[in-house]
Structures are given as C-alpha cells and as structure tokens.
C-alpha cells in the first residue's frame, strides 16, 4: 500500500460516510472551538492582570515586602524613592500610588474603583493611549482620567463631568483607551499627590511603588542585586518578574487557572470521545473490507496508517473550521467587553492538541483491526 494511496483511500472513506463525518466535524468544531475560547480568554485576563506593569516604562519595580500582586500591594515609605534614585546604575525613578476607592454614580449608588496616581510631568504609570484629553491635564487639581471601558459600570462619562471619588469632588479631564482591569473595577488615573489624598490610608509620606530605569551600560540584574542589598523591608523585581508574579497569583491562588484547565481538559476528552466513537463505528462496519486488505497482503502497519489518516483528515478539517469561527468571533468578544487574545503559539498548540486528540482516539480502532483474521472472509 503506497503512502499517497493511504491518504487517498482515507479521504474517500471519510467522504463516503458523509453523515458520520459531518457529526464528527461538528463535535470537533465544538471541542476545539471551546479550547480556543478558554485559552484566548485566559490569556486576555492575564494580560489585563499585568497590563499596567507591562505598559509602564522602566526596568525595575520596588514594592512592599511579600507583595503578592500589583493590585494589593501595601504602602512603603516615600524615602525609598530617594534611596533608589541615588543608587548607582539608576537613570530615573518615579513614585506610583495604587489604591482602592468608591465613585458616586450620577443616579445614586456607588461603584468600586482602582485609583492610580502618577507624575503628570513624565506620564510614567499613567494612561498610554488617550481617546480625549491629555495625561498632563491631571496636574494641580482634583482631576482624573477614566478609561472608556469603565462606562459599562459608570454610565456615560464625558470630559468636563464631575464625580465624587471617596467623597472628594473630581473633574474628568480625559478619556483613556485600552486600560482594562482584571478585577473589573474601573481605573481612575489622577496625579500622584491627589491619589495620596484620596486614599487616606497611604498618607503623605508613603508611596506604593517605585518604578526605576536602569542607566545605559549597567546590568539590570546587577542593579537589582545592589538594590536588594541596600534596601530593607521591600521587594525588588524586574518588570517581567513582577508581571509574572501578578499573573501567577491570579492563576494559582484564586483558582482561575484551574477552572480554565478543567474546561480545556473536558473539551479535549469530549473531542476524543466523539472522534473515537465515529472512527470505531466506521471500523466495525468495514471490518470485512479490512480483512480483504489483509488477505491481499496489507500489513497491520498499513491498516493502522489508514485509520490514523482518517482521524487526521477529520481533525485537520475540524481545526481549520474552528480557527475560522474563532477569528470571526473576535469582534463579538470585543463588543461584549471580554478580553480575548489569540497568539500564533496558541494556534500551534491547539493544532497539536487536535492531532493528539484524533490519534489517541483512533487507538481503540487500531487495536481492533490488528486482531482481524483474514479468514473472516470465509465465514458466513
């Protein structure tokens, strides 16, 4: 049995059993599509979890001791900033406040918000993409910038509107874009000083983060090592390290990662059962044909390759249809304000999972065919 003829026979068999192949295809599209969705939504959530870290310029983050993630770090003394700034190998450093508060709605009621205070002169730690307004406009007053994604929770907000945050009157001077919070709480950007005043519990002599840039010619790891040696009661991370720590916290300690993993595994086994059942039924129905092939000299390897080829054809077609459906639905996820990230390595990973799913599902049928005795042709 020549190599290309195996694929030819497998394709003809798949096309011959049109109804069974259609059922298999629908099942595969559902299972693979669900895997795509779960991986994409998970990556979107993790991207949101560390978004402010990843988008903020700088190489080093200094946080409170044993800080678990970006959103729940504790205050540190503001003098840490000056120690960092005076350290050899530091080009610049900035203070950043992240605190929780409540914003009063126009029609009554309140919503929880995350307040981010930054230096409006440099913009470091502030919004990176503005729909309206200027990030520097928050300076010298009770001013704030709200992201457009927050309007689902806060209602329609325009530049010039007034809102109360922690019972302090705040004027909206800008609308940012792309600042989606993992916690779903709207983010309000203000000046560093106003954020200190809003928080209450931080105090005028404390900050929450110090973000620093390594000077040219210095090793980032070397500067981090020096800072760890010279600073007490704080943690020093690289930007990538703090981003990873934040994502791992939300993935492991909250159970988010486990719930996504369970759904992916269930989808994988559902797809495997669907493919395995249809391939096995097809094998049983054509058991005499496989016996004929053996009587004509086909080896167990040839027969196994034929069955695997059928499963692979169904898997590849199911994967391609699922990929097209996923790509077409990206706008729907965006319209529903759901973070969905589809990277090239996700596509490759899902393709490999689909092939493994189909090949594994075919093993039962292969074992059945290997035991066929060509003498079956002479039995009534």
Q: Can you characterise this structure?
A:
By secondary structure, the chain is α+β, with helices and mostly antiparallel strands. Helices cover 52% and strands 19% of the residues. The chain has 13 helices and twelve strands. The chain has helices spanning 3-16, 18-49, 51-55, 79-86, 151-154, 192-199, 220-230, 239-253, 256-285, 287-295, 300-335, 344-361, 363-370, and strands at 60-64, 76-77, 90-104, 110-118, 130-133, 143-147, 162-165, 168-176, 187-191, 206-207, 209-214, 234-238. The strands form two sheets. Strands 1, 3, 4, 5, 6, 7, 8, 9, 11 and 12 form a ten-stranded mixed beta sheet that branches. The chain is elongated. The model has no long low-confidence stretch (mean pLDDT 84).
In short:
With 380 residues, this protein is of the alpha+beta class.
């Amino acid at each position: 049995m020549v190599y290309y003829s195996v694929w030819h026979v497998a394709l003809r068999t798949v096309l011959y059993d049109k109804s069974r192949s259609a059922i298999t295809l629908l099942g595969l599209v559902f299972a693979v599509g669900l895997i795509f969705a779960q991986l994409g939504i998970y990556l979107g959530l993790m991207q949101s979890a560390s978004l402010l870290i990843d988008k903020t310029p700088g190489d080093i983050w200094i946080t409170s001791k044993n800080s678990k993630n970006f959103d729940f770090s504790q205050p540190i003394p503001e003098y840490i900033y000056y120690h960092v700034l005076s350290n050899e190998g530091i080009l610049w450093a900035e203070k950043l406040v992240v605190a929780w508060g409540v914003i009063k709605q126009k029609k009554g009621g309140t919503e929880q918000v995350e307040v981010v205070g930054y230096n409006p002169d440099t913009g470091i730690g502030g919004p990176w993409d503005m729909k309206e307004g200027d990030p520097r406009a928050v300076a010298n007053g009770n001013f704030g910038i709200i992201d457009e994604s927050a309007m689902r929770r806060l209602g329609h907000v325009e530049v010039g509107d007034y809102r109360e945050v922690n019972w302090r009157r705040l004027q909206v001077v800008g609308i940012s874009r792309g600042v989606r919070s993992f916690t779903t709480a709207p983010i309000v950007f203000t000046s560093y000083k106003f954020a200190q005043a809003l928080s209450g519990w931080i105090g005028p002599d404390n900050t929450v983060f110090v973000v620093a840039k390594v000077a040219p010619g210095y090793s980032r790891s070397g500067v981090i090592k020096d800072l760890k040696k010279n600073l007490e009661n704080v943690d020093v991370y690289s930007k990538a390290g703090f981003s990873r720590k934040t994502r791992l916290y939300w993935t492991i300690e909250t159970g988010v990662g486990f719930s996504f993993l369970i759904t992916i595994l269930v989808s994988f086994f559902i797809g495997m059962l669907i493919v395995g059942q249809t391939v096995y039924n097809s094998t049983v129905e054509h058991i005499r044909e496989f016996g004929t092939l053996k009587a004509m000299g086909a080896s167990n390897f040839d027969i196994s390759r034929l069955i695997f080829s059928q499963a692979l054809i169904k898997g590849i077609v199911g994967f391609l249809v699922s990929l097209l459906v996923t790509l077409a639905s990206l706008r729907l996820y965006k319209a529903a304000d759901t973070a969905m990230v589809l990277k090239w390595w996700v596509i490759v990973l899902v393709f490999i999972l689909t092939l493994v799913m189909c090949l594994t599902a075919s093993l039962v049928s292969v074992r059945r065919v290997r035991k066929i005795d060509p003498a079956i042709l002479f039995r009534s």
